[in-house]
Amino acid sequence: MIQVSMQPGINIDWQCLTTTEAEQLSAALKAFIHGLTHDSAQADDIYQETLLRTGRSTRFSDLDNPLAYMITVAKSVLCDFQRKRIPNAVEIEHIDLEAANDGPELTFIQQQKLSSIEAILNNMSPLRREVFILRRVDGLTRDEIASRLDLSVEAVKKHLTRAMVELTVKLEAEGWITEN
């Protein structure tokens, strides 16, 4: 039985894989994650969280394509990480309520941030922008969005992930958020 243990509490039973296959799977997953983010610390965190979630959710012997499953989990983890890093400026109602109590300088900065977000959203493809707004602003579930727009849930997930990454990268480039 092959076990990968990266930290206490993360043990994935890869008994259906040879040692070479397990090493190749791990290397491919790491390469994919490093392709998503060039921040090695964040990539390591995403890798660890992917192993943790994968180990908790399924047995590898039940999977037809373990790498594809882990890549899907890694994308979800990245999306969760990005969601934590994006400022709450997307939640327009929340900012409007705070703005009433802020001074003119902070109000101006928040308006500039909102303008940047609006410009980024306006430059996205119409479908990606609509999926993002339905999820992040209107609060619809992925299933509801898929039904409303006649898309697969996987397509909705793809658009959400790419929108979040695009928004984060462009906000970082404009200096609104900093890399950790």
In summary, what is this structure?
This protein has 8 helices and 2 strands.
The average pLDDT is 76
Number of DSSP E strands: 2
- Helix/sheet category: mainly alpha
Query: Low-confidence spans: pLDDT under 50, at least 5 residues?
Result: 1-11
Based on CA atoms alone, the radius of gyration comes out at 19 Å
- Helix count, per DSSP? 8
**Largest sheet, if any?**
2 strands, antiparallel
Strand arrangement within the widest β-sheet reads 1-2
Specify the helix fraction band.
55-70%
Hey, roughly how much beta strand do the residues contain? under 5%
- N-to-C order of helices and strands: EEHHHHHHHH
Cα-to-Cα separation, first versus last residue: 38 Å
Morphology: globular
List the topology elements.
Blueprint lengths: L2 E3 L5 E3 L5 H18 L3 H18 L8 H20 L6 H8 L4 H20 L2 H11 L5 H8 L3 H21 L7
Antiparallel strand pairs: 1-2
Helix pairs in contact: 1-2, 1-3, 2-3, 3-8, 5-8, 6-8, 7-8
